[in-house]
Description:
Blueprint (H helix, E strand, L loop, with lengths): L5 E12 L2 E13 L4 E5 L6 H9 L6 E10 L2 E2 L5 H7 L4 E4 L13 H11 L5 H14 L5 H5 L8 H13 L5 E5 L7 H18 L2 E5 L3 H7 L2 E6 L2 E7 H6 L4 H8 L52 E3 L2 E6 L4 H4 L19 E14 L9 E14 L3 E5 L6 H9 L6 E6 L2 E2 L9 H6 E4 L13 H13 L3 H14 L16 H13 L5 E5 L7 H16 L4 E5 L3 H7 L2 E6 L2 E7 H4 L6 H9 L40 H5 L4 E4 L2 E4 L5
Amino acid sequence: MVEPILAFEGVSIEHRGRRGVNRILDDVSLSIAPGEALGLVGESGCGKSTVALGAMRYLPAGMRVTTGRIRFEGRDLATMDEPSLQQLRGSRLAMVYQDPMSSLNPVMTIGRQLMEVPLLHGERDEDRARGRAVAMLHEVRLPDAEAMLARYPHQLSGGQQQRVVIAMALMAEPALLVMDEPTTGLDVTIEAAILELVRELRAKFGTAILFISHNLGTVARLCDRVGVLYAGRLVETGSVRDVFRAPAHPYTRGLLAALPDLDRAHGAGRLAPIAGTLRAEDRARPGCAFEPRCGFAEAGVCGRGPIALAPVAGDDAHRARCARLAALTTASDEAATPTANSNGDGPVLLEARGLTKWYQVGGGLMGGERRTVRALTEVDVEARRRGTLAIVGESGSGKSTFARVVAGLVGGASGTLRVDGAALEGGVDARPRELVRRVQMVFQNPDSTLNPSHSVGFALQRPLRVLRGLSADQAAVEARALMARVQLPAELMDRRPSQLSGGQRQRVAIARALAGNPDLLIADEPVSALDVSVQAAIVNLLGDLLAGSEMGLVLISHDLALVRHMADWVAVMYLGRVVEYGPAAQVFAPPYHPYTEALLAAAPRPDPDAAAPAVVLTGAMPSPTVEIKGCVFASRCPRKLGDICDREKPPERIHGPHRIACHIEM
């Protein structure tokens, strides 16, 4: 039998703090073979990152292993002294974090940081260390490696920073690479490129990978086996194919059911969020920690413990921790119920014609050349009542600028912008209060909307009084109605935002936006920072709100599966221009703009049989300060026809209401 690279043997980890002892991991056993990739999934707080820190023996103060052993290449990490650990980390064991800037020193060049790895692990010759740094930058496909060595981290894009961190981790060709949410926060195209890069480097160097993610699609694309954690306990483990095709534990089923499906048409069914939330007291339950949220729980059975990981249908390689496992393996999940969303054929609510937003940077006290940033150029789109217009594209495409111009957070745009025929001009301070009321926005981070010093009740009552002129008593009554509308109990009104979960805070932010009784709701990445189950609940809530009113929704998102689920109309933006626009059913079916095709190919799917992306974009989006005479996508287009794409603005190919700006005849 092959000795595992990493083995957790009945590991329990506790944290001792002011509030007592909290068990973070409970009797976790897992192993990773040489060259194997193991994915760990679960909601926030389930213990995924604690496993990663335990594998590196990086546990923070107050946290310690109470039972079991963590062995790396047969050696017990707990018995190793600090010099031995220092030698191990970076040579045989390396880690890539979610935020690359947590690994990069902002005052050191990329070259010096890469060279540190071999110099700290025995290399004496700086020229050889520099040569290895250049070679590794080539391995991770960063252009102009020699010039890259002289740059500082802030001079790189997010995707480039993550590639540098991966290069740093692989410099010594480690036996195990621990990756903790390495693609969270990256554009879908960059994420696809990073995952393909890791797959190739893993094959070349034979490195084993512990891959931690809340994104089941990335796990399906990269990993051989998967472990599902809940409340610090491993509740299911097996091959990616077995677990994703035939999930056995109710929690695993819940995670998969909560995901929107890129291959299912809008309105095909509601998402299925997992009821309730993980509570601190659930970790100490003697039986199944998931019992309070489980629709299959049986009184007197699931509450008794302990419950062991047992083979699923006699397969020892696929195991689940469930007291009702035998009964559940023959049970099927309920069919999805249809959504209440309309088909987006209501009257036009928002109309943008030739919307352009350019501004100047540079000069002033700092000196330098004045440059024009072309944030939006000649944008033509519409949003309809009872319907959803989705704006998609990579970072820097102009999505959020469009949202902020419509909401009045950014002024100075030219062109025509109207809501229900009324001109939306200037910033929010210059607009009549009635127009401010009619257009409201929900942000990605609810903390940017909610004042931490005030209660939820105050946050809801203030816009009711300012925008709608209600009295204090009327506002108090209406605030309770808003809480009910977003499915929150009224008793939460006395709490401050810090006392709520992330999902509850986002519901309050939505209720605050609804306080003005708006005609148009703009949601800028409203669920990207939430767990998959909480995402599903918020998405269903937005759908219900839309179906039960005459309101229109503009959704800004990089998640194409979410857009496929919610949108009636889609605008695909690149470098401030709309390159494709039309009904969602047509945008998600051929013919595509080459950029839309690349976005769809890059979108991760929780399907173990999904092929690698047919199109992987290379290079970075050009700077918005560069004037482009031809097609804005020409520099990265995999289907570029030739010089015409650089010289001439592409014509619009019209397919009924579907428009594609491309030189390729479709």
